[in-house]
Design a protein that fits this description.
Largest sheet of chain A: 6 strands, mixed
Helix content of chain B: over 70%
Radius of gyration of chain A: 25 Å
Oligomer: heterodimer
CATH class of chain B: Mainly Alpha
Distance between the termini of chain A: 29 Å
CATH architecture of the largest domain in chain A: 3-Layer(aba) Sandwich
Number of helices of chain B: 13
Number of domains of chain B: 1
Number of domains of chain A: 2
CATH class of the largest domain in chain A: Alpha Beta
Distance between the termini of chain B: 35 Å
Low-confidence stretches of chain A: none
Number of strands of chain B: 2
Largest sheet of chain B: 2 strands, antiparallel
Structural class of chain A: alpha+beta
Number of helices of chain A: 8
Order of helices and strands of chain A: EEEHEEEHHHEHEHEEHHEEEEEEEEEE
Order of helices and strands of chain B: HEEHHHHHHHHHHHH
CATH topology of chain B: MetI-like fold
Strand order of the largest sheet of chain A: 6-7-8-3-9-10
Structural class of chain B: mainly alpha
Strand content of chain B: under 5%
Mean pLDDT of chain A: 91
CATH superfamily of chain B: MetI-like
Low-confidence stretches of chain B: none
CATH topology of the largest domain in chain A: Rossmann fold
CATH architecture of chain B: Orthogonal Bundle
Chain lengths: 368, 287
């Protein structure tokens, strides 16, 4: 989405406590019109509570929720122009597919030919034209999900909420539905807000992601920003796989940082902003497995970020190879990922000496 | 396990229960069933002469009207139990988990004392000099005591009191099985609370309504203690009629035929209810 698009939903300082647990902690967030937004986080991070507050099933203890600039904090769920696709789908088991989808419009007073036309359109949109008369229990999981989607979309809500929409589907179907959801979002122009604990799902579908940790936003940004420029160790660790090196900041000049790591010596990283970093203070250097380059080691190693290690494990994933490399003084092995067709693939056996390195601008310095 | 081993295990587990039922339920029922086809002896015994006269007599307008009146009283009790029980069951089933168990224990608390004693207690409450009438006279709402006891009002009150827990428990189990997200989905799609209730909650809890209603109806129509004590001893319900045939009129064959007609009616209702529940559960299990 283009920056500066109109704000659709504004969450202003929302807090929600359940007994001693603070599920959502003074959280503020803007969701823009016509974007595909993902709330991502581990279970218990508050993402579902936040979703349920936007839907109206939970009231924030403190703070407000605005839709199109209007305060809807006290508006009941049935009066919000927001619809939700539930994780369990929550289809009405006693109603046919057709009647499930028609339900929302019937509540608006749509009747007769107009109703039939829009339900037929919705059935066509999710390609279930043949299934209108069936009861939900006679459908497959994927079909049920599409009924739930059609039922929520038929009212043309300002915002569609999706609670773990793909969790109940098998892996192959999940991939298809990711594309299907993207297509539906594009075709309908409705803003989608999806809650998920699956980072791949969020990366694949969302325009922007808010990663939540303990009721607060750990980082908000595009999938690329979260993956490539994680703001904290939590973000770096949650999204994808990351190698971490604990050390001290030895020097900082001209956007280039030098980190002293026990047992490995100096490592280099390029950084744009390192506010609050003090030379001599503890920092973490992070590098993605696919950024690590491997070569079969000549004795000794030279060059920036060049480390000598020993292969301790290799996992063959078909397309890729995951190599674990033991480094002196490091508690956890370095993880490297390379194409299984690589010319050194055959040399990467347990016990082999390897040289690894990466360009300074492929690693990140994390302060927290 | 071998086939015979399984059979032995089943017999050991089922044996005591089935044996008990066979000996003390099926055999006596069979005896009563047989009696219903014989003539009454002159001195109250059985003349072993086959006849269908007992069943023909049961459909005499005099007895038929008692049957119908019993059904009316039982139906009224059932309807009231449903009206009173549904909101209570709904609140318990949709309330916080930690509050459900104490509330359910409260619902079942009356079972801890004897039904007869509890029915006598209603006499104390309802009679002319009873607690209710005296309280109403004392606060000046009425001048003469209301006729609360020894009528159908008292019978329905007693039956409702006695059997309401069955209704609440049946409804509770049905409502608590409903996925709460289904009600939320209805609200999310624009339905106000009452429409969610009519379109979603009520249809989906019909099996519970059927189960609770059959419980209350069957228990009420066959009851003879409550009409005897609270109804003033007039023969108003079929339970009393059967009781009288066996103990006062000493017409066992006629009593037996009435008992079997009543059992037949109850069985019919129970089968209808089991069928309805089965159908609904089959659907839900796959939904």
């Amino acid at each position: 989405m283009t920056a500066g698009a109109k704000t659709l939903v504004e969450i202003a300082g929302a807090t929600k406590r359940f007994g001693p647990v603070t599920a959502v902690d003074v959280l503020s967030l803007d969701i823009r019109e016509n974007e595909f937004f993902a709330l991502l986080g581990p279970s218990g991070c508050g993402k579902t509570t936040l979703l349920r507050m936007i839907a109206g099933f939970e009231q924030p203890d403190v703070g407000r929720i605005l839709l199109d600039g209007r305060d809807i904090t006290a508006v009941r769920p049935n009066r919000r122009p927001i619809n939700m696709m539930f994780q369990s789908y929550a289809l009405f088991p006693h109603l046919s597919v057709y009647d499930n989808i028609a339900y929302g419009l019937e509540m608006e007073g749509v009747r007769g030919a107009a109703l039939k036309q829009r339900v037929d359109e919705a059935l066509a949109m999710v390609r279930l034209e043949e299934f209108g008369r069936r009861r939900p229990h006679l459908l497959s999981g994927g079909q049920r999900q599409r009924v739930a989607l059609a039922r929520a979309l038929i009212k043309r809500p300002r915002l569609l909420l999706l609670d773990e929409p793909l969790a109940a589907l098998d892996k192959k179907l999940r991939g298809q539905m990711q594309l299907e959801l993207k297509r539906l979002q594009h075709d309908t122009g409705i803003t989608f807000l999806v809650v998920t604990h699956d980072q791949e799902e969020a990366l694949a579908m969302a325009d922007r992601i808010a990663l939540l940790e303990a009721g607060k936003i750990a980082q908000l940004g595009s999938p690329r920003a979260l993956y490539e420029r994680p703001a904290s160790r939590f973000v770096a660790d949650f999204i994808g796989v990351m190698n971490f090196f604990e050390g001290r900041l030895a020097a900082l000049a001209g956007g280039r940082a030098e980190i002293e790591v026990d047992g490995l010596g100096r490592l280099w990283a390029e950084t744009e902003d390192l506010d609050g970093a003090a030379v001599g203070g503890p920092v973490t250097l992070a590098v993605r497995p696919e950024r690590v380059r491997l070569s079969v080691a000549p004795a000794g190693a030279a060059g920036q970020n060049a480390l000598s290690g020993t292969v301790v494990g290799v996992a063959y994933l078909g397309q890729d190879l995951i190599v674990h490399i033991g480094l002196p003084g490091q508690p956890a092995p370095l993880v490297a990922r390379l194409g299984s067709g690589s010319h050194i693939a055959d040399d990467l056996v347990e016990g082999a000496a390897v040289r690894c390195d990466w360009p300074p601008n492929d690693s990140r310095i994390l302060l927290v | 396990m071998t086939k015979t081993g399984e059979l032995v295990q089943r017999l050991v587990l089922l044996g005591p229960g089935l044996g008990w039922l066979a000996l003390f339920l099926v055999v006596p029922c069979g005896v009563i069933f047989a009696y219903s086809f014989f003539l009454r002896g002159i001195y109250g015994g059985i003349d072993y002469v086959f006849t269908l006269e007992n069943y023909a007599r049961a459909f005499d307008p005099l007895y038929l009207s008692i049957f119908l009146n019993s059904a009316k009283i039982a139906a009224l009790t059932t309807a009231l139990a449903l009206l009173v029980g549904y909101p209570a069951a709904y609140l318990i089933a949709t309330g916080p988990r930690h509050r459900q168990v104490p509330l359910l224990i409260l619902v079942m608390l009356p079972f801890w004392s004897n039904y007869l004693i509890r029915t006598y207690a209603w006499i104390v409450l309802l009679n002319r000099e009873g607690l209710i009438n005296r309280a109403l006279v004392d606060i000046g709402l009425i001048e003469t005591p209301l006729p609360l006891l020894y009528n159908e009002f008292a019978i329905v009150t007693g039956l409702l009191y006695g059997y309401l827990p069955f209704m609440v428990l049946a409804l509770y189990s049905s409502i608590s099985r409903l996925n709460p997200e289904i009600r939320e989905a209805s609200a999310d799609l624009g339905a106000p609370g009452w429409r969610t209730f009519l379109r979603v909650t009520l249809p989906l809890t019909l099996p519970g309504i059927a189960a609770g209603s059959v419980f209350v109806f069957v228990l009420s129509i066959g009851n003879f203690i409550t009409p005897d004590l609270l109804g003033g001893g007039r023969t108003v319900m079929v339970g009393n009629l059967i009781y009288d045939q066996f103990l006062s009129a000493r017409d066992w064959p006629f009593g037996a035929s009435l008992a079997f007609l009543l059992i037949g009616l109850m069985m019919l209702l129970l089968f209808a209810q089991a069928w309805a529940v089965n159908r609904a559960q089959g659907e839900r299990a796959r939904a």
